[in-house]
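User: Can you predict the 3D structure for this chain?
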Amino acid sequence: MVIQDIWFDLKDGRRALLRSPREEDIPGTLDYLVQSAGETEFILRYPEECGRYTYDGEKAFFERKNASPTEAMLMCLVEGKVVGNCDIAVLPHIKARHRATVAIALLRDYWNLGIGTRMFMELNRIAEGFPQVTQMELEFIEGNDRARRLYEKSGFRIAGVHPNAFRFKDGSMHNEYLMIREIKR
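Assistant: Here is the predicted structure, written as structure tokens:
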């Protein structure tokens, strides 16, 4: 699904752009994936795992997202730089088509500027546009309190826990929490 350009003001006065990914975003996206993975323990991958991402792979991924009637991806650009992205996908099976999964990530230098809140406004709007969707879902890693506050502000609540779902390089184990946001129809 292609989302039209959405311009908005950041808390620091700069302008940001949310839009569907384009081929021109691929080099910046590849850099963003590595950088974001190294800035926090709360992203699924470590930087050294980003080698599997390629120009051609991202191009195919972007094309699939943009062509899908039940998925959307938004890139966030500030001054032409890819600084974040978010994603929504309706589950494909008949028994689960009422559920949409969402994900979000943002470079550290762009935290606390209103980008995450705006991304969730758009994800919520997109989900509400799918008439069959009655529940949005996401996961977060224990200790990611900033993200949890954003998710709760966006209408999500904890619905479950996956104990010891992640082992960090230091050997520590961390739970993964499932959050949902119900859409009343």
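Strands lie at 6-9, 15-19, 71-78, 81-90, 99-106, 135-141, 157-167, 173-182. The radius of gyration is 16 Å.
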